[in-house]
User: Fold these one by one.
Assistant:
Number 1:
Amino acid sequence: MKKLFLFLLLFCFSFSGFSQIVKDSVLSRKMDKYRDLTISVPASYSKDSKKTYPLLVLLDGDYLFDAFNGALSYGNYWDDLPETIIVGLHQNGNNERYDDCKIDESTGLPEGKGEKFFEFIGGELLPYIQSKYRVGNFKIIAGHDVTAGFMNLFLYKDQPLFNAYINLSPELSTEMEVRIADRLSAQKENIFYYLSSADGDIKKMRENIALLDTNIKSVSNPNLNYKYDEIKGASHYSLVLYSIPNALYQFFASYKPISTDEFQQKIVKLESGYVDYLKNKYEVLEKTIGIKMPIRVNDFKAIEAAILKNKAYGEFEQLAQLSSKSYPKAMLSEYHMARYYEFNGDMKRAVKSYQNAFSLEPIGDLTKDMMLAKADELRGQIKK
């Protein structure tokens, strides 16, 4: 099973999803040198000049970029993960990455080149990316071992630059096991934190990570979204391939369309409020990760099915109001109103709504022929 998983993930590395891969560099005046970048620009980027995207900044971009880009491309293909701007920062092997992440052992804070690198990310790299690309409010940073430990320093700021942190077997600096938990406890905005290790990880790092996990689990903060993975049968390096999709699906859980399990376990069991559930799902998406999007047609279909199954026909009127906002030129709203009238016994108005739907744009599996057929079917039921 694990071998199959690794094969599929490696396969998806080559799946570009039509995103554009750009090589770039940014001049760091703090470090007095150019820093190389690999950037993945979403496929839809040029189609909508107002659309913004989540940002994922990768330390150790030399080897993490392909893994993250492949997972995001594959997830987006199935509409499980959103398109994301990915910025991989090259660190050219261990010498540069250790220089970048230099920390004072007594204080646990960046020093020397490490301090300059810290200031470069916040004061030069992020402003450069934000000036060049349409970056939304949701920003993720990820790293592996020494870079994962280093990126946690951004949590120490009163207003962290990133909303979400992907820690792949982090090498934790002085008192970080305690400080991170304290900082996560103090966050007043939504904060996402993913942490992973493996049973084959480096022993000292694994012990420190386990202590950090214990401390974070004691945090009581409704704004914290936290997950820890201890991956069985993996090493310090192979855990990366297991962790990446787990972290992404954790952070973007609110993005996923309504699944069969969600429908059966949550929606259909409600006594009422099916339309409210749908509205809330997309409001949470916008609030937590800053993505505002039309409600998916299939999600409308799921709510329609719940209404029919529970005979809550009055909610079709609310559903029509919601579908009109998402698809004002399509026939979906008139179709929902027709269903409302039909199940309330007003066949004349139902026929009229089906006829109105015929003049609008087809959407999903709703067609003009279907609207005419429904109108003809109900016309015969109208009492003269």
Number 2:
Amino acid sequence: MAAPSRLPELALLQVHRLVKRFGALTATDEASLAVHAGETHALIGPNGAGKTTLIHQISGALAPDGGGLFFDGEDVTALSMPQRVRGGLVRSFQITSIYRRFTVLDNVVLAVLARRPAPPSWWRPARADEAAYADAEAMLALVGMTTMADRVAGSLAHGEQRQLEIALALAARPRLLLLDEPMAGMGPDESARMVELLSALKAQRLTLLLVEHDMDAVFRLADRVSVLVSGRVIATGTPDEIRGDAAVRQAYLGDETDLAEEGA
């Protein structure tokens, strides 16, 4: 499929009229959005809007039934998740997945080794790979976990485990990082620390596509916001534009989130 000319040519990620059906249910209904290099782009919508299904299709976990995906101008619609990761399209999951019995540092070392084109030598101890450990330590520094390097991952608090998961994703050297509800299950203090971490990544111009229910965090972090309702993107704009959009407010009627007041 040729890259759609009507979407911005400078976009790093172009999602073009994606369709995903589960029997009679259309979970994504010709959904389109564009994410530009260096921006933090948030995807929001009421419960059941199809956000996670859309992220599954972008990451390669689900194949779409129609439409296309373009990453840096290349058609990646048919590529597997590992192929997309190797190209720089990396995802963290809503449910934390770590090696709980390993140390924090060893978790990240494994992610560093997995990124390499050749498999690690089983005849050489991983701890002898100084470059891998130096790279892993750099990832931990990025997420503020240097002092936790020797802790067993299973002993971390929930928010710290989410930080570790982001370090694992960063070890893949993403050009675009998909974050599926990074603050899910967190208390106020943990959420505040996660916002600080994502702000630091944003300051480094890492491209982020963020799915999050915490509207205060969304409006603090996002450069642009896309709103998904019933599988369709009904609006894209700056946080101020989205807060003032009548169609968006209508979509959220009855929801506990008052978009007009969030971020004030």
